[in-house]
Design a protein that fits this description.
One of its GO terms (molecular function) is ATP binding. By secondary structure, the chain is of the alpha/beta class. The chain is built from 21 helices and 24 strands.
Length: 667
């Protein structure tokens, strides 16, 4: 940078009170004005003799083993406009500046204007500066131009004194910066010069490209000696109520030699030749982020991770409330790129500093292009199948491919289907808006009990109800809830709250352990049943319970269950329908199974779950042979399964419901 010639500018009002003198310094009497001498005073760090760990600053370079009492010179020292505090590592080292203190109030006033908006500078830091003096480096043009236009003669002299002090100290910094700007390559030790506070920074991490506002950077070192450069940045995120600026740390690990700025994991956006295209792409993604503020039930597909149509609830508020990750503390969006000292002192606040369950307004103010540019690349969500909280790529969400024939697959009598449809098609379930909170109260939900042997369609019924209503299906098993009353109450309470909040259909599979009749000699089980009954009493929503042991259920559940559907073992006609339901999902070119083959397959006395598993295994066999799926592939799998079941059942092979086959395919 060039050094402009002197010009004039009007004087600004100043404040002569130094509220932040360094530790150990003594305030001057009001009669003595600080910083009036237009000179630089050098002082030197000296240990206090006989007092380990204590030190003071003296006016002359001390000889080894000698020191000057600090109190004799403090008052006079404060009259200097600038004090340079010097230290050395040991007696053989040269003296170097530890920090400089600016005492002149007119310089303070000027610096408040010159460094206005510079991130993280407090009032104290406007008077104390440490090498390498990056605020002056980044604002050197503004600093020199301010001096050019300064109209007050005294102020000009004070500022010029500061400039002349900084010039030799910044000379090496400017040289290194010119090398970075001129070549587009940077050494690790010069990374702090590659970023300007308030500029946009780009990071590539885990396949995501993100933008941020750079605030400051610092070098550090791990315990094992590995060095790094940390960039402290601001991004835009959503907490379930509002958008705000979230502080993040982006790290660059030490490397050897020079690297292109654009090849770094964190780089300034201005260094990229295609920065306009990058901005356009990130703003476009930010618009998607903007649309996903709120609660949504969507499908997630990531072919690289082999995840296809995973049912997912996008809900940042629930994520922070239930996942164990606390609510973030945001700065206001209006502070992007312009964080003054006053804002930095209390910049962060949470939308949920009060009761997180209390109703509150959701701020969906449209985002600007600049705000969209800074939006994080992921959304906080809950995987319905795995019941895990996650942050997922927001560009991979899409509408759920709903099944329009959900109830057609159920092997139920027509009267039972009609009753089931009538119950779930009630206005409070069918027409309520997704994710609206239910009105609290007693007995406003619907509880269904499905009983019967395994593999006859109980789970499929729950899936069909959720599919028909286009709601999430939240599955819970005994293994998810635990065995102690406290564990069941805690886990089930979370499940009930989530399902009520999302209007999900709650399926509690194999609920026998929580519903078994209470007895006088099993207090632990009695407590489990009592907890379960109490939680059911106040649940508002659709709950489906499945059991294989209807006769052992406690009689208290009778008044709480709205409908009980009993499933019998599958008949041959039922099995034929199950085979058809599964096989109709195949394209004709991928399957070679006719009606006669299905009739033959239906003679195997397997339940629905076993049929589904057999098709899955046979499909792998067909793919290995590069053939369409046919009856031969299926019969190989069914024969093996029949033999295995025969061994498990002491020589009798069956599908868990009716006829025995002794491991031989029926005629």
């Amino acid at each position: 940078m060039t050094h402009p010639t002197r010009r004039r500018y009007r004087e600004s009002p100043s404040d002569n009170v130094d509220e932040n003198a360094p530790n150990g310094e003594v305030e001057l009497p009001d009669a003595v004005e600080k910083g009036v001498r237009c000179e630089i005073k050098d002082v030197y760090y000296t240990p206090v003799e006989g007092k380990l760990g204590e030190y003071h600053w003296v006016d002359e370079k001390p000889l080894d083993g000698q020191s000057t009492p600090a109190w004799k010179t403090k008052k006079e020292r404060e009259t200097y406009a600038i004090i340079s505090f010097n230290k050395r590592k040991d007696s053989d080292s040269d003296w170097s500046t530890s920090y400089v203190q600016i005492n002149n109030s007119k310089v303070h006033t000027a610096l408040e204007k010159i460094l206005e908006g510079y991130p993280n500078l407090t009032q104290y830091e406007l008077k104390i500066f440490q090498p390498p003096y990056l605020p002056f480096f980044h604002r050197w043009t503004e600093f020199t131009q301010y001096i050019e236009h300064e109209s007050d003669e005294d102020t000009w002299h004070y500022l010029n004194l500061l400039r002349n002090m900084l010039l030799p100290r910044l000379d090496d910094t400017f040289t290194r910066w010119e090398e970075v700007e001129g070549t587009g390559h940077v050494a690790f030790n010069n990374l702090d010069l590659a970023f300007d506070p308030g500029d946009f920074a780009i990071r590539v991490c885990n396949g995501f490209r993100s933008a941020s506002v750079f605030r400051r950077g610092s070098f550090g070192c791990t315990c094992d000696g590995r060095r790094f450069f940390d960039a402290y940045v601001d991004v835009v995120d959503w907490d379930g109520r509002r958008c705000g600026l979230l502080s993040q740390t982006w790290r660059v690990w030490e490397y050897r030699g020079l690297r292109a700025l654009t090849a770094l994991s964190v780089s300034p956006l201005r260094a990229h030749p295609d920065k306009e295209a990058i901005e356009t792409a990130l703003i476009s993604r930010g618009r998607v982020f903007e649309k996903l503020r709120g609660q949504f039930f969507m499908a997630y597909t990531d072919e690289h991770e082999e995840r296809v149509n995973e049912r997912t609830v996008i809900d940042a508020r629930a994520y922070h409330k239930f996942s164990g990750n606390s609510f973030p503390r945001f700065a206001k969006l209006s502070e992007i790129g312009r964080l003054t000292w006053a804002q930095s002192m209390n910049r962060y606040s949470s939308s949920y500093d009060g009761d997180v369950d209390a109703p509150m307004e959701i701020d969906l103010t449209p985002l600007t292009d600049g705000q969209c540019l800074l939006c994080v690349p992921t959304v906080k969500c809950f995987n319905i199948e795995s019941k895990k909280w996650d942050n997922l790529d927001l560009t991979k969400f899409h509408e759920i491919p709903w099944s329009e024939r959900a109830f057609d697959s159920l092997v139920l009598d027509s009267e039972e289907k009609d009753l089931l449809l009538a119950l779930v098609d009630r206005e409070e379930f069918k027409n309520s808006k997704p994710f609206d909170d239910f009105i609290s109260g007693k007995g406003q939900g619907m509880i269904m009990l499905l009983t019967g042997p395994p593999g006859v369609g109980k789970t499929l019924t729950a899936e069909s109800v959720a599919e028909h209503l286009r709601r999430p299906l939240y599955k819970v098993g005994a293994g998810d809830l635990g065995i102690s009353a406290s564990s069941v109450e805690r886990c089930l309470d979370v499940a009930l709250k989530l399902c009520s909040h999302w209007q999900a259909v709650l399926l509690i599979d194999e609920a026998d352990v929580f519903m078994e009749a209470r007895t006088a000699n099993n207090l632990q089980r009695n407590e489990l049943v009592s907890v379960f009954l109490r939680l059911l009493e106040y649940y508002c929503g659709i709950m489906i319970l499945t059991t294989n042991r209807m006769r052992s259920i406690d009689t208290a559940f009778e008044s709480r269950i709205d409908i009980t559907l009993t499933y019998n073992s599958l008949t041959e006609a039922d099995r034929k329908q199950v085979w058809k339901n599964f096989l109709r999902n195949f394209d004709s070119k991928d399957m070679d199974i006719d009606e006669a083959a299905i009739d033959d397959l239906a003679k195997w006395a397997f339940n629905g779950r076993q049929i589904k598993s057999a098709i899955k295994t046979a499909r792998i066999l067909a793919a290995k042979k590069k053939q369409p799926l046919n009856a031969k592939h299926l019969n190989v799998v069914l024969n093996l399964r029949s033999k295995a079941l025969g061994l498990m059942d002491g020589g009798t092979a069956h599908g868990g419901n009716e006829a025995t086959m002794n491991g031989v395919k029926p005629a």
